[in-house]
């Protein structure tokens, strides 16, 4: 039997958070089809003392609680040991979801989709003791310039964003090769553009007609129209993407 292409181990204080998302939609299908393997681990299991303490007050004062480095180390080592018993011989990529990390985007998802094993650590409260980050985390990842209460939503974003790039995750009819943010060649450069607008039946809707060209059957003209729309939309909404275009012979 073939082994999953990607393994995700999630470390969280709220394992129940993942129940529904991992049992729904294409992610659950990918798990059932053994394209990806996801295991959720409860950090509290590794808490200290009878109260299973996982956090403590920040040195220097201030609001909130900080996740303890010793607890996270125990939790991480347990996941590493479990991985070995599953036969995973590669070094995992240890990711901490953190608003101060590098931005998660399509390029990052493409790089990650070529790896094999991820350990995703979800922070909470004020965050994670800096020494744990320095010693054990390979990369900190942010899903956007805003602050969430915990890393769980961010972990799901990473799992779905990466997994859907694996062959077989989406049906053939829904290829991921031509979507927003995937690379396209444009005037000798490689750009990541927004997707073109799409229409379906009815042809007329509340006085608005679907563009005639899309009903013409002329595939070349349709392709050109779609590319024009991609550029137009990107220039209007995300000009930064065009500025980041790279020369083809990089
Ligand atoms: C309330 S936040 C901590 C925020 C931190 N004190 C700061 O201001 O940067 C708690 C946890 O939520 C997660 N989190 C919040 N926003 C995030 C984001 N934009 N991307 C990824 N993880 C995020 C992280 O795991 C973080 O440790």
List keywords for this structure.
250 residues, alpha/beta, Alpha/beta knot, Trp Operon Repressor, Chain A, 5-stranded parallel sheet, 3-stranded mixed sheet, 7 helices, elongated, binds S-adenosylmethionine
Describe the protein's architecture and organization.
With 250 residues, the chain is α/β, with parallel strands linked by helices. It has 2 domains: 158 residues, SPOUT methyltransferase, trefoil knot domain (Alpha/beta knot), CATH 3.40.1280.10; 70 residues, tRNA(m1g37)methyltransferase, domain 2 (Trp Operon Repressor, Chain A, Orthogonal Bundle). It is 30% helix and 22% strand. The chain has 7 helices and 13 strands. A hairpin with a 2-residue loop joins strand 9 and strand 10. Helix 2 runs parallel beside helix 4. The longest helix is centred in the last third of the chain and has 19 residues. It starts with 5 loop residues before the first strand and ends with a strand. The chain binds S-adenosylmethionine.
């Amino acid at each position: 039997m073939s082994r999953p292409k990607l393994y995700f181990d999630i470390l969280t204080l709220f394992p129940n958070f993942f129940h529904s998302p991992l049992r729904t939609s294409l992610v659950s299908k990918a798990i059932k089809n053994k394209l990806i393997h996801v295991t959720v681990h409860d950090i509290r299991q590794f808490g200290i003392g009878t109260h299973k303490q996982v956090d403590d007050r920040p040195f220097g004062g201030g609001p909130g609680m900080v996740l303890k480095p010793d607890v996270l180390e125990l939790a991480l080592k347990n996941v590493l040991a479990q991985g070995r018993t599953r036969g995973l011989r590669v070094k995992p990529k240890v990711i901490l979801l953190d608003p101060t990390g590098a931005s998660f985007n399509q390029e990052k998802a493409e790089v990650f989709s070529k790896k094999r094993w991820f350990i995703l650590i979800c922070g909470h409260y004020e965050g994670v003791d800096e020494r744990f980050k320095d010693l054990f985390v390979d990369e900190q990842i942010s899903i956007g310039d805003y602050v969430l209460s915990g890393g769980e939503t961010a972990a799901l974003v990473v799992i779905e964003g990466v997994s859907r790039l694996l062959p077989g995750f989406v049906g053939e009819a829904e290829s991921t090769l031509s979507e927003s943010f995937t690379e396209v060649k444009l005037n000798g450069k490689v750009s990541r553009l927004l997707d073109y607008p799409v229409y379906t039946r009815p042809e007329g809707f509340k006085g608005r007609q679907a563009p005639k060209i899309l009903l013409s059957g002329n595939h070349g003209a349709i392709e050109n129209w779609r590319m024009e729309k991609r550029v137009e939309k990107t220039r209007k909404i995300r000009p930064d993407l065009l500025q980041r275009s790279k020369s083809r012979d990089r």
